[in-house]
Fold these 4 entries.
Entry 1:
Amino acid sequence: MKGYEVKDLSLAPHGRQRIDWADREMPVLRLVRERFADEKPLAGLRIAACAHVTTETANLVRTLQAGGAETVLIASNPLSTQDDVAAALVAEWGVSVYAIKGESTETYRNHVHIALDHRPQIIIDDGSDVVATLVKERRAQIGEVIGTTEETTTGIIRLKAMERTGVLTFPAIAVNNAQTKHLFDNRYGTGQSTLDGIIRATNILLAGRTVVIAGYGWCGKGVAMRARGMGANVIITEVNPIKAVEAVMDGFRVMPMIEAASCGDVFITVTGNRHVIDREHFARMKDGAVVCNSGHFDVEINLRALRELAESDPITVRPFVEEYRLRANGRRIIVLGEGRLINLAAAEGHPASVMDMSFANQALAVEYLVKHKGELSPGVHTLPAEVDTEIASLKLRSLGIEIDRLTPEQIEYLSSWEAGTA
């Protein structure tokens, strides 16, 4: 057993059961794992993975291990670790895991450095904290890195900023931008798991309530779709005119947050930006308004401003539910999951069947970086379309679904400009 830092190894048997349960819902990743076990495309590779330590992530790590990689896994968020899963990976598969649910920011940052102590050749990142730390504090190691893969919109924004400033000197695969990732994981996964986290934390009825969703990207679309399906009245706030028009055409009310603040019963941020809910918004909210975040970092809700507005420290009324009472008017603002990812803080994250495609993307992106070592230019790259299509085809096959194929005549027609009106 290698180095590790988990809550309790005695949780491993239960974690193993849950990992195996998730594996049943991940047939695409299982097929990749079987091939990796035969071909060993990652033999001898050192990988540092920063991810939410969940049952689905465990099956990704098993796949990397089957391919021959030596992987260190750390949590990408202090509240997203499933402690029994972390224990099972250590005890059952001998993986070095450094993750404890509720770990402090200091511990989290220490784990990032432990991951870099592994001298990784590949980094699997979720928010780009490992890459950012490498670039800022461990530059002597950069030459050892073949490349990185990134799971989130937030992380890709950071990577592109690094690319613009010239500090990203190795290739990065934007896994989040693969169609079999963001069209499904972000929309269906975030949509369901966000509401799951809210309901588990509060046990409130969404039907009839006004739910304000900040951001109408794929995550926001998914949350809005599910909230409406549960009977909520949905308001969208946006800064992008095109996305705002789309939300209107999808049948949602659209307005600035300053107006929505006085209307909403539940507020959900999914923007990837900071202080989307700010001081002036808290001042307008109803008594008992519920505020939560499903974006990657805990910066979307300005909790420092809320603490300054509150008459005292918050009261924990349920697990992952804190009540702030405003000094000015006595109204109560309810914050879920400390403003961190509510779908992982209070629930289990995305369903395994959705993460099946996302993590197949991750595994194949790692393989792609290894196969094309030295060929890819520094900067952010999209996973090749043929890999995306392969994952979708495997998913359909696992569901027992067949689709049409183009005939030779149709292929010829699509590649020609000469044919027109018959």
Entry 2:
Amino acid sequence: MIATQTAVRVGPLLRDWRQRRRLSQLELALTAGTSARHVSFIETGRAQPSSDMVLRLAEHLDVPARQRNALLIAAGHAPVYQETPLDAPEMTAAREAVDKILAGHEPYPALVTDGAWNLIAANNGMGKLLASVAPELVAPPANVLRIALHPDGMAPRIVNLGEWRAHLLDRLRRQCQASGSETLAALYDEALGYGGEHEGPEHNSASDLVLPMRLRHGDLELSFFSTVATFGTPMDITLTELAIETFFPADEQTREFLHS
């Protein structure tokens, strides 16, 4: 009876992830090397999946590590992914790698965020982007999306605010869909509440290749594009959710300003 009850709990969760990925039971079964009948039995609670089966299905459903642990627990198994604080001794190598990237990117801005867009670290170059942001927005725990789009944040200085807002919200929306995170969904709803129009790219000279963020800084207009890097093959939840965003000058005026 206990096994059946646990299976009932994990079944709807797996079904939700399968439907989120728009896969049929047969499609999932074929990629995971099992039968559609077995997938159906798991989803309806008629079969209790082993930990290996839960992980195999989660892998082919591209379920994030944090939610894979939740599936394992719902199926009555122990979680396999640890969540180690970034300041723990065993994270020294990862921490040093992050610090090296941030320092090596100077004088250009760079920052590190967690899975909820919270600011973990930043280099000195970020100071130029954060000028005039309300102190309460940059006080811990600071959130990068709020810093960018809140009316008391960078938003009043972003020249192409409509298209930049649309870019950030689309990126967040895709993360919500991929992760099923209620925290991200709440952040998305909060950002929508800031108001403002959502515009597509203007396709001017700077955005022919990438969408820049055009920022007022005194009498200057600075233009940046960014790249986002993540850890390869992470086995810890903290590392799976870390993102390193590096900003580059999109024009010569911005490059000269950053080097001045």
Entry 3:
Amino acid sequence: MGLILSGIALSIVLRQNARNDVAATALILMETMGSVRDYTSSQINPELSDELETKFLPQTIPAYSAREVFENLRNNPEYRDFFYKEATLNPTNLRDKADEFEAQLVRNFQQNTSLKELSGFRTVPSGEVFYIARPLSVSAESCLQCHQSPATAPKSLIERYGTSGGFGWQLNEIVGARVVSVPASRVITKANRSSLIVLSIVSTIFIGVILLVNILLNRQIIRPLKRMTRVAEEVSTGHTNVEFEAISNDEIGNLAKAFKRMQLSLDIALRRLSRSTHGGTGA
């Protein structure tokens, strides 16, 4: 029962720890993508803005840069299970179109501007995933160059994506959510691996303690009690010459001493009874 209860408690704690570890990694990745966005917006976009009138350069779009950098990062086995998306309600590129679940995340951020982060599990066609999301807002004036209206947007952008989406944005408006997700199996596998290691250690300790307790019980209590039981049985059948051995100074030793005093008292009583019986017969 101790192992079962410990296993349940450890499973809950370690799963939460695994979730926190994955969430911490996801947040680091998200902050990194935020830095890529800022770099693209503040340094790349101004340098290439003049060329946008004649040639569309997706590298000048912060969302595109962040997505491409993240895809390159996924070539590393450590991060291949992570996915990044800037889910937008009204995107220029349909690749960034928010699904119904992501759209609800965006609406939650819009309705509660003090809300800075949402996380949890969701079910997708490929299975269950763990996600962490943060609001995506129009934080720079340069973003409005492409997203304020078709009239002010670069012609090359209009030619590539048209005028159906990605316009009417306002400065500081929350237009989407940055979402990093990872298959839930990664969280569960990490928790199970940790649980197995910890439970193995706990089980070894439990078994070691149980064996030690049994050895001590057998040596300090069971064996002395068995010896006293045999001696008491012999005394009860009239063999008063056997002795109780007080082999220790603990409660078992005190019990042996008490039995020995009782044996002496019984021996004295039997002798008196014997003399009294013989004396009465002689009269």
Entry 4:
Amino acid sequence: MADLVVGDDGLARPTWASHDALLRDYYDAEWGMPVRDERGLYERLSLEAFQSGLSWRTILAKRPAFRAAFADFDPEVVAGFGDDDVARLMADAGIVRNRRKVDATIGNARATLALRDAGGLPAFLWGFQPAETPVPHSYAEVPTSSPESIALAKALRKAGFAHVGPTTMYALMEAVGMVDTHLVGSHRRGSSGVWA
């Protein structure tokens, strides 16, 4: 299949994860594995928002700097960020310096804390897990949004979150194992334990 490449290790991976060591390691160990803790989900939500309009490779390479800049994505700490922190972030060449995305990350931390009284971010996000997952044989069969990601984006915006469009939320759902869009034939298909 043209969209899968068998590596020297004999494992089939999608082309995007087959040539770059950073992307390959991320694909093999992290992408599509269930994330169910508040900090982990807040981090993924934040990074997906920063990725909008950029390559995931760019964000992944900057992830250590993002973690340092945003207090390891501790929502309680980030929720307390003020003008001095925004100025610091906008001067940090290690991250993506986009004011709207920086503001959204801080606002989303506050929205994350506000969700605690209603069961928390993990229960909120995972409440939009679909009943079925795609079974793609090629990239062309991988959706970029779904009814669930559209509903999730709308619900998050209503809860005070920003930079949470349907396509970004679908990418989040893929990244945290809520759907399994590993191509059929990939060594990772079904590895999350969420989908048989």
